[in-house]
Write a structure and sequence with these properties.
Layout: H1 2-16, E1 19-20, H2 21-28, H3 32-44, E2 48-51, E3 65-68, E4 74-80, E5 84-91, E6 95-103, H4 111-129, E7 136-140, E8 143-145, E9 150-154, E10 159-162, H5 164-172, E11 176-180, H6 181-192, E12 201-206, E13 210-216, E14 219-220, H7 251-255, H8 257-264, H9 272-282, H10 286-292, H11 294-311, E15 315-320, H12 327-340, H13 342-346, E16 351-354, H14 361-374
Parallel strand pairs: 4-7, 7-11, 12-15, 15-16
Antiparallel strand pairs: 1-3, 2-3, 4-5, 5-6, 8-9, 9-10, 12-13, 13-14
Helix pairs in contact: 2-3, 6-14, 10-11, 11-12
Length: 378
Amino acid sequence: MRRHNRTTLLRLLHVSGPSTRAVLATELGLNRSTIKTLVDGLAEAGVVEERVPRPGRGAGRPSLLVLPQPHAAVVLAVDLQVEHVAIALVGLGGQILGRNSWNLHGRTRTPDEVITHVIESAAVLAGDLGVEPVAAGVSVPGVVRRADGYVHEAPNLRWTDVALGDRLTAVLRIPILVGNDAELGAVAEHLRGAARGSSDAVYVSADVGVGGGVISQGSSLRGGAGYVGEIGHMVVRPGGRPCYCGSSGCWETEIGEAALCRALGLPEVSTRGSILVELRELARKPEEAASRLGEFAEWLTLGLVNVVNLLGPQLVVLGDLLTVLPEPVVQSVAEEVGRRSLVSRAVGGTRILSSALGADGKLLGAAEVAFEVVLDTF
């Protein structure tokens, strides 16, 4: 029981940040003497510290704050995307201690090259910071078996049957947890972003591909063998554009990166920078944005109506390229989803928000799944 309480207290500090002993007692339903014993033990081990808060206006002696110590446990987070890789060392409490990134092109996208570069870059970063990661989380844009990190298929990377988890474990010799990128984006938004406080939420990620992560009753929904969230391959336009999955008219073909390029009048092979510049320019021209992105917004709306009717979330969080859509377009989509979704009307309206974490969302999600195993060891 003591170990359970210790882990629960540390998890609360890790996710919610500094807190007083009194608040911890209330949140955990424990008496103050138990909290004192737990905090004293963690402080003695160097996992937390107590500090006087900044002077305030209130009278009397302020209560000490209990703070997690970032260097007490450090994990490696890897966000593998189609065009680039980002890695970070993340400390207890969610603080990014250091990071690195590089672009992918040609043969540098092969599994061997990516794995080698991740291992080498992580070693350099850890050496520079003087820390050793105790676990790692990896975000991959594909179908991933969570049990062992086996990447069944990551089509936009042209990866098939890659034992990513086992290969990284063999070299790094720490626990490795590999997950689908949209699932990990959902985890991050639930714990640290726009979906914080929502027990039921869906994260929709549109990049080269489209994926989804689902938070149901406060937990990540993983499906059979960990395969879930391929909402980009929900058929919305029968007889539409061919999709690499073998079907046609998938949602991905209508709201993915290539579709957004078409809507903006850009070549489908445009760089991410060109897309972002065009979208930011449109944000200053609401009427033009509504006109040029009208069809794109309609397909986005259609897919979201289906997602909301099927899963009934309190909140939908838009990630990746969807976060850069002009606000009037997002607002219009939200209103249409509310009007056309039976479930949304029944629950009093499903909110639709852009990601609060930006480009770091999946990186932080990767860190959080690594911390799931780390926090249980204290």
